[in-house]
Design goal:
By secondary structure, the protein is mostly beta strands. The protein is 0% helix and 47% strand. The strands form two sheets. Strands 2, 4, 5, 8, 9 and 10 form a six-stranded mixed sheet that branches. The chain has a four-stranded antiparallel sheet with strand order 1-3-7-6, with no helix packed on it. A hairpin with a 6-residue loop joins strand 4 and strand 5 (46-51).
């Protein structure tokens, strides 16, 4: 399994932007599909976005389409989540995940908190 460490979370006002990063260990990062999930207090973890190993398939949750962009840099073993026009309902702990494809994730990071104030 790959080890994942997220960073870039913080406090931002509604309408602002943040970019999350997820650094992965291991030499096989480029073979993994990567994803971002989030979990708010009292709610189940939900899918946000995913990207395949080539970067060519990038599904998004309807709630973030047009505002969030997932990307990856295989040379840096890093996946990113650019979040624009943030809303208070985007407040959550954001988790990075890795797996064999964009619907199957088996490695998880520890999460990074994103708080959007109104």
């Amino acid at each position: 399994q790959v080890q994942l460490v997220e960073s870039g979370g913080g406090l931002v006002q509604a309408g602002g932007s943040l970019r999350l990063s997820c650094a992965a260990s291991g030499r096989t990062f480029s073979s993994y599909a990567m994803g971002w999930f989030r979990q708010s207090p009292g709610k189940e973890r939900e899918f946000v976005a995913a990207i395949n190993w080539l970067g060519g398939s990038t599904p998004y949750a309807d709630s973030v389409k047009g505002r969030f962009t997932i990307s990856r840099d295989n040379a840096k073993n890093t996946v990113y989540l650019q979040m624009n026009n943030l809303k208070p309902e985007d407040t959550a702990v954001y988790y990075c995940a890795a797996g064999p494809n964009i619907v199957n994730f088996n490695s998880w990071g520890q999460g990074t908190q994103v708080t959007v104030s109104s």
